[in-house]
Amino acid sequence: MYSVDRVSEDVPIHSWFPKENMFSFQTATTTMQANFRKHLRMVGSRRMRAQTFADRREKSFSRSWSDPTPIKTDPLHDSRDSGDLQESCGTLDEGSADQIWEEEREEERLACQGEDFIPPKIMLISSKVPKAEYVPNIIRRDDHSIIPILYDHEHATFDDILEEIEKKLNAYRRGCKIWRMLIFCQGGPGHLYLLKNKVATFAKVEKEEDMILFWKRLSRLMTKLNPEPNVIHVMGCYVLGNPNGEKLFQNLKNLMKPQSITFESPLELSAQGKEMIETYFDFRLYRLWKTRQHSKLLDYDDIL
């Protein structure tokens, strides 16, 4: 129904690192760091909250990540967030579920009418990724549908992340949903290191309730209009390095039903990996960032 024209730069290998754009070996200035802090607000960061982490646990995380002022609880919102969804309450028959699906699809269609609508792509970035704070500066500048969200790996919760995704989607176009998604985090063969002490494996996503609920709620934020399966790319780790990676992706697909979701985690050096990178990033700037990802001496003036 909708299409996104993806314009990527066909940059030859020898031009990945042009001399005029190479990083200079200088420590980033205080002013530059301050600009980044001003530009980015890390979801779940303690610096952005007036209350302590213990207070947040006591209050069941029932407020927005960006607002230090406690807010009144929305009973309907809490009921939905606590897992009282149609798939968990078991009171709806198949016909009722189908009717709700069609009604939600129609609501989304009406919200996203117009030739100017470009389906949004969510980019979820863990602070555990080295130099993660610079990632929003290397995304494609010709694609305004890419929505970067940087979250605090140490202190964020699943609720924090989902609330921020909803807020960003409504700011982009109220009522719209995710068409494509990139999860940029650490991990390895067969596992995703999403949050501190929250590692997604094929076994854990079957039994840990908060992780199960996260993926189910995330599925409700995926579009119902896409005639093709919605894609969730995983980057920053090679999940498919062993058979447990396929099991993990299959279990996540099952959790997110009835949405049709495809998980992809190609090697960055492969043709599929390059295509994935170019979907979200300026390829040349991504390669420049990658070469200095683990350097303590850097200057990002060239990519700001």
UniProtKB/TrEMBL annotation:
One of its GO terms (cellular component) is cytoplasm. This is NMDA receptor synaptonuclear signaling and neuronal migration factor a. Residues 74-83 have a biased composition (Basic and acidic residues). Residues 52-89 are annotated as: Disordered. One of its GO terms (biological process) is positive regulation of neuron migration. Signal peptide: none annotated. Transmembrane segments: none annotated.
